């Protein structure tokens, strides 16, 4: 019974978190429960004037263009939060930051933190990768190099590019941003 208690203390909070995410997702998509699909509750991404019109329009050219833009990453992250899948982008960004680490000591500690937070089975913010990739990444930790997350990062990136990115481009928030950017571009040309 002490084994059952220790098992529950490890898995129950995670199960509760995943259950809560599911329940919040259901609530988010029910207009009668406070989430309106009208313009007042859309992501307030279109109001960010610091985004240049060209940047916003370039995001639809390729996923790479989106990831190169700080405001694009922020807009995409905000969108992913509405889908409860921001951990994919957070993991990708953590890997990009990890690759810049030069200290061997920091490299090992960062690698363990990233693995525990995103990669290990039942991690608090577990990304959706296959068992084989998870095991390869686990083995890579023993001799942590800046490349130890490359395979997991690539799979997560592909998942975002093929799944979340097209939905982002079709989202009301991006459509609004795109229309505003296009109209700003048109008005600038008519004044010159």
Automatic annotation (TrEMBL):
GO biological process terms, semicolon-separated: negative regulation of signal transduction
GO cellular component, one term: membrane
Gene designation per UniProt: RGS16
Name this polypeptide is given: Regulator of G-protein signaling 16
Membrane topology per record: Lipid-anchor
Matches recorded under Gene3D superfamilies: 1.10.196.10, Regulator of G-protein Signalling 4, domain 2
Keywords from the UniProt entry: GTPase activation, Lipoprotein, Membrane, Palmitate, Phosphoprotein, Signal transduction inhibitor
Cell location: Membrane
A GO term, aspect molecular function: GTPase activator activity
Domain annotation RGS: ranges: 62-178
Function: Regulates G protein-coupled receptor signaling cascades. Inhibits signal transduction by increasing the GTPase activity of G protein alpha subunits, thereby driving them into their inactive GDP-bound form. Plays an important role in the phototransduction cascade by regulating the lifetime and effective concentration of activated transducin alpha. May regulate extra and intracellular mitogenic signals.
Top-level taxonomic group: Eukaryota
Pfam families, sorted: RGS (PF00615)
Matching PANTHER family: REGULATOR OF G PROTEIN SIGNALING, REGULATOR OF G-PROTEIN SIGNALING 16
């Amino acid at each position: 019974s002490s084994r059952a208690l220790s098992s529950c203390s490890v898995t129950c909070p995670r199960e509760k978190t995943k259950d809560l995410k599911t329940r919040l997702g259901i609530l988010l998509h029910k207009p009668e429960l406070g989430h309106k699909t009208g313009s007042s509750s859309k992501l307030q991404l279109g109001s960010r004037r610091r985004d240049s019109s060209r940047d916003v329009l370039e995001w639809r050219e390729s996923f790479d263009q989106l990831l190169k833009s700080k405001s694009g990453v922020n807009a995409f992250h905000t969108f992913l939060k509405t889908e409860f899948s921001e951990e994919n982008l957070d993991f990708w960004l953590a890997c990009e930051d990890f690759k810049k680490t030069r200290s061997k000591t920091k490299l090992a500690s960062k690698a363990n933190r990233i693995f525990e937070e995103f990669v290990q089975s039942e991690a608090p913010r577990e990304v959706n990768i296959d068992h084989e990739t998870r095991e390869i990444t686990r083995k890579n930790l023993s001799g942590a190099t800046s490349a130890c997350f490359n395979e997991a990062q690539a799979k997560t990136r592909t998942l975002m590019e093929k799944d979340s990115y097209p939905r982002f481009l079709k989202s009301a928030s991006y459509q609004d941003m795109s229309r505003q950017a296009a109209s700003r571009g048109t008005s600038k040309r008519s004044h010159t």
